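Input set for joint prediction.
Command: fold jointly, output tokens.
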Amino acid sequence: MRGEVRALAAGDTDGDGNADLAVGGWNMTVAVLPGGENGPVPARARRFDRTTPGLPAAPGNDLRNFGDRVLLTDLNGDQKADLIVGATQEKVPAQDRVFILPGSDSGVTVKGATALRRADLK
Ligand SMILES: [Ca+2]
Ligand SMILES: [Ca+2]
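tokens >
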């Protein structure tokens, strides 16, 4: 298991005016720490990994490096940053995934999450 921080992103995922921090790479997990008056609040962090229920996972779910690439930006114009996570599938590159987890009033959620495959980008 790796424990390095591999990726960082900041954006307001819950629309409260405070930037929230996404940290990717800790054991193939992405943690989203909501921002508060004094900065990020780790105690309220949400964590996502390749086995998180509700994520549209790849067949066999052999995804590696979940969270090596993360981005927070508002893709759908609702004023809440959405979390974009890249994950590679070592043995079957065609099954690499880019997950999009929408922001909401309560922050990043798997509700409405989608995934792109390499085949979707051709
Ligand atoms: Ca926020
Ligand atoms: Ca959004």
